[in-house]
Amino acid sequence: MTGMTLDEASNHMTSTNPVFALDQATVDGVTYPVFKNAPDHMRHMLQVARQYHGNGDDEFLVYQQQRWSYDAFCADSNRLAHGLIQHFNIGKGDRIGLAMRNYPEMLIAMMAISSIGAVVVFLNGWWTTSELDYALQDSEARIVFADEERLQRLAPLIESRELQLISVRSENFANLVGFGELMAKGHSSEWPETVIDTDDDFAIMYSSGTTGHPKGVVQTHRGAISAVYCWWMTLLLGPLMADESAKRAESSSPAVLIVTPLFHVTATHPMFLLSIPLGAKVVLMYKWDAQEAIRLINQEQITRFLGVPTQSADLMEEVKRQGVELPSLEFLSSGGAKRPPAQVAQLQQTFPQAAVASGWGMTETNAIGIGISGPDYLARPGAAGRLYPPLQRLKIIDDDGREVTNGVVGELTVKSAANMRCYLNKPEETAEILQDGWLRTGDLAWVDDEGYVTIVDRKKNIIIRGGENIACLEVEAALHRHPAVVEAGVFSVPDERLGEVVGAGIQLRDGHRVEADELRGFLGQHLAQFKIPDYFWFRHDELPRGATDKTDRRALRTQCLGSS
Questions:
Q1: Which of 6, 266, 529, 561 is most buried, judged by most C-beta within 10 A?
Q2: What pLDDT does 458 receive?
Q3: If you average pLDDT over every residue of the chain, what do you get?
Q4: Contact 452, 6 (CB under 8 A)
């Protein structure tokens, strides 16, 4: 059968393929549609996915000269799981931090921790010592896997936070338990036997909000696996919908290149976790480099690429500069920030064999949400797309919570079993954003009669710099620490490469002067580098204020950008 609509294809798949059969489940008093036969938890997903990996012999993980088959990866994860139990007496519900670059050890540890019912705490690798301190206090994680650079930042916290650090690829912390040493203590590659419920916590990921400190998003096993199975099912709908690009992709051996940090949901969920049931090879990069990406795509026959829009643009420009082609690439998507509409046609022209795509999701939704690709995207380059089926529901609501009609702008809200359980230690913020299973995203959007969603603005004061969320209030709080600063207002500044960067309008104290470089050096003691403003506008008069006497960021932004 071909030529179905998205809804028709989804209904056909859920009614004929037992892998995607639907049922209902009640979670925290709310009833959701769920996948009846999906794995219960991460360890179970690893086990049932073996059939998609050539009985375990297929290559699964690649990093530089190191390679793991699927069985070897599972064996290493199991050894580490047993090592955590035997050496640290880790039990169900214990929280363990991960702070490192995109090393294979991060993925092995992620699955080892979750396979024994413990909770993975993803720590932003760019955070300063004080930012790490906040997350460790908030999550109560006392054991942290960390690489050399993160170990140096964590070292001052060992005593105050009673940390036990496990070194990863470190040469200067020989006194610590090493990753390989801990794995050797496991003495077994058999699967752990811890009983895990599908609604147990799987991970805590930190997401910047409108408050100064990031919020810990608590994700469950059911939530993450629900998202993975929605993506997986959607990939199989292409042939039913007469989607030629999807037919091509289905006939090849999938291989993904992970180019965004693994402490972000874009890398962990639609790239790594989806690769498990998809039977895909996962290739890691130490850090983003367009030239190296081209080499890896051709060498490893990469079929799927997902990065922030900046990385797609970098890849396109480097391909043009070198005059090369990437014939294996079948899917070129972006997430973390909106891609400039003009870039869509340019990418399709540069990569004619690939389905150019874009996705919208949140840490709070386990990254599932809205997507668009191929001809649909070329025809609607400004749209975010349609809901991934079959578990999600969508409403656009006004300020009073009432659903608006198609074409009217309101707040985007989504409901599914993939939504987060809560914000860690923040019941009021949880109740504000999550109501009867509906997640208020803070994004302003409208939906057309065909179900395509266009996101027009953000209600929350967030800057997205190359896919990284930056809370305006956090940057303002750091600026206010400087003795020369009376008041600061932070806002986004358009940037051709990164989408937007940080700008700050600053009222200086009478008789004080400060240079931009001096202020950046000061901020470096309190903020990660990506949060430090690229632009400053200094003044001695008061910043513009709104009716409630709060700083009017919109007016300040207009004044500053108009004066540049």
A1: 266
A2: 74
A3: 93
A4: no
Hey, is 492 helix, strand or coil? strand
Q: Residue ranges of the alpha helices (H) in 59-193? A: 70-88, 104-115, 129-139, 148-154, 179-184
| Phi, psi of 433, rounded to the nearest 5 degrees | -95, -25
Tokens representing 409 are 């702008």
Task: Tell me the average pLDDT across 395-419.
Answer: 96
Residue 207, both tokens: 């997401």
What SS3 state is found at 280?
A: coil
Does this chain's domain 6-21+220-458 share its CATH topology with 462-563?
A: no
Other CB atoms within 10 Å distance of the CB of residue 43: 25
Q: How far apart are CA 416 and CA 22, in angstroms?
A: 13
Bridge-partner residues for 144, per DSSP? 97, 165
Q: Which residue has the higher pLDDT, 308 or 194?
A: 194
Whole-number Å distance between alpha carbons of 564 and 558:
10
Torsion angles phi and psi, residue 495, rounded to 5: -140, 130
pLDDT digits (tens, 9 = 90+) for 451-506: 999 988 777 778 989 988 888 878 988 898 899 998 899 999 999 889 899 999 99
Running DSSP on this structure, what letter comes out for residue 400? T
The ranges assigned to domains in the chain are: 6-21+220-458, 42-196, 462-563
H/E stretch holding 361 reads: strand 355-361
Cα 518 → chain centroid: 33
Element holding 62 (H helix, E strand)? strand 59-63
Q: How many CA atoms lie within 13 A of 18 on its CB side?
A: 1
In the β-sheet with 535-539, what is the strand arrangement from edge to edge?
A: 485-495, 499-508, 535-539
**Of all helices (H) and strands (E), which one includes residue 2?**
none
Q: Architecture of domain 462-563 in CATH?
A: 2-Layer Sandwich (3.30)
User: In sequence order, which residues have a C-beta less than 8 Å from that of residue 21 and are 6 or more positions away?
Assistant: 14, 15, 35, 36, 37
d(CA 133, CA 336): 25
Question: What CA–CA distance (Å, rounded) separates 524 from 521?
Answer: 5
Task: Give me the DSSP letters along 363-405.
Answer: GGGTT-EEEEEHHHHHH-TT--BEEPTTT-EEEEE-TTSPBPP
- Contact criterion met (CB below 8 Å) for 43 and 115: yes
Query: Nearest Cα to 465, choosing from 446, 432, 445, 490?
Result: 490
Cut 0.85: pTM above it: yes
Residue 113: what are its φ and ψ, rounded to 5°?
Answer: -60, -50
- What is the structure's pLDDT at 1? 44
Half-sphere exposure of 95 (CA within 13 A, CB side): 21
Tell me the C-alpha distance between 522 and 478, whole Å.
9
* Residues 42-196, CATH architecture: 3-Layer(aba) Sandwich (3.40)
Q: Give the phi and the psi of residue 287 in degrees, each rounded to 5.
A: -155, 165
Contacts of 273 (CB under 8 A, 6+ apart): 45, 224, 227, 228
Dihedrals phi, psi of 146, to nearest 5 degrees: -150, 150
- CA angle, 378 then 326 then 335, to 5°: 50
